[in-house]
Amino acid sequence: MVMNVNAPRGTIDIFGEDIKYRNFIIDTARELFSVFNYQEIVTPTFEYTEVFTRSIGEGTDIVQKEMYTFEDKKGRSLTLRPEGTASVVRAFVENKMFQEHLPVKLFYIGSMFRYERPQKGRMREFSQLGVESIGTNNPMMDVEVIWLLNSLFKELGFVDLVLLINSIGCSNCRESFVEDFKAFILPHLEKLCPDCRKRYTQNPLRIFDCKNRHCRKVLEGSPRVLSYLCTDCREHFEKVLGYLDVLKIKYRIDHSLVRGFDYYTQTIFEIVSYQIESAQNALGGGGRYNNLVEQFGGPSLPAVGFAVGIDRTLMLLKKLCIEVNLNENRPRIYLIVLDEEYSSYCLEILQYLREHSYTCDTNYNAKKLGTELKWAEKGGYDFSIIVGEDEVKTHNITVKDMKTRNQYRIDWSTGKKEILTLLSRDTSPSRR
Ligand code: HAM
């Protein structure tokens, strides 16, 4: 019986061309992480639920509605990670990384899980790459992570992204803001959605996360958190903006930016594209979170970081037809063997080429020269090597340059190295 099993709603299979885009994003990020001196960390895909509820915040959408939480066989509550920051901070504290030279600068790449209503650019399993820099309150570090985020998208070839920035201050500044904000909302309470009415009492700042049209309308003209910053927070924010100016990184102050996590303090930012519709236009975002390490039982250490959505970034790269440099400068070779009898000869050739690190493949099934040459063309191979009866008898190979259509005959017994010379003559990128 044939099983009728599809991928779960909100998940995708990534293959073919998309894998090339994905690897391009990840490779570019890895290179930059190394340039900025960040070290990789791999944390578990699931954590005790408390890791997320305590850090992200009980009143947030993520904790209230979007977590994949389950009990293990011993009745312990576990959750598939909805984001990376909480896990990294948990690992930082648990492994006493605070004893190392500070700041500790970490990066991660992996799957995250949120039970959201799936739509274009919003999935239930998605990949993020991110950084967390723990152990300094220097505004230069806020700028370093923003600079890294900005450089990543620049390296990927984006030109039209907008960097939004705001500061939500520390708990002191927020207290007086929340007081005035609540007074502002009160007369409009009836117009808010049921969720926001709950947020009003539990966690008023979260009203800013709401996508509901009516709630957004109410927020127009609301007090601005930026006007409530204490002297320290205002000076910190001014320095951040000043350093961004030094680096000529363009930004736009967005007073309505609050970001949907309770752990943030002071600087928050997002990188958005207005070429993607609506709510899914953020490709990455982050901010400072100065209380989280202590909340996890570590020393009081400030931190800042960001995460980028790999799937959304991939979608936009493709949509904007950004040519990706796939670093495939070495020629790719397709070995066409016209009869299974010649398999041993074919293996010898493949072994030689692969030992010399050339990407090569052969035809395991069909054996028609015309069909195989067409495939070599379509598959973006730079050279075909043809092995037929004549070649085997004379111990030769025929090499066809797929671009120029020139053919060369090489004596395999005596002139093996000739193939390497021939291949190195053409180092132009593969046709995709
Ligand atoms: P976030 O804004 O929730 O931040 O996620 C970062 C990025 O992940 C988003 O900008 C978006 O591109 C992508 N993303 C989020 N949810 C989805 C989804 N359902 N489907 C597809 N892509 C999605 C964080 O996660 C924070 N931990 C960032 C951070 C690090 N803050 C400080 N350090």
Structural class determined from secondary elements: alpha+beta
In total, the number of strands is 16
Count of alpha and pi helical runs: 15
Helix content: 25-40%
> Regarding CATH, which class of the largest domain?
Alpha Beta
User: What percentage of amino acids are in beta strands?
Assistant: 15-25%
Spatial extent as radius of gyration = 28 Å
CATH topology of the largest domain: BirA Bifunctional Protein, domain 2
Give the N-terminus to C-terminus distance in angstroms.
Answer: 39 Å
Oligomerization: single chain
- Strand line-up of the largest beta sheet: 1-5-6-11-10-9-7-8
Uncertain parts: 427-432
Q: What compounds sit in this structure?
A: histidyl-adenosine monophosphate
Under the CATH scheme, which architecture of the largest domain would be assigned?
2-Layer Sandwich
The largest sheet, given as strand count, sense and whether it forms a barrel, is:
8 strands, mixed
Mean pLDDT: 92
- CATH-assigned homologous superfamily of the largest domain: Bira Bifunctional Protein, Domain 2
Count of separate structural domains: 3
How does the overall form come out from the CA principal axes? elongated
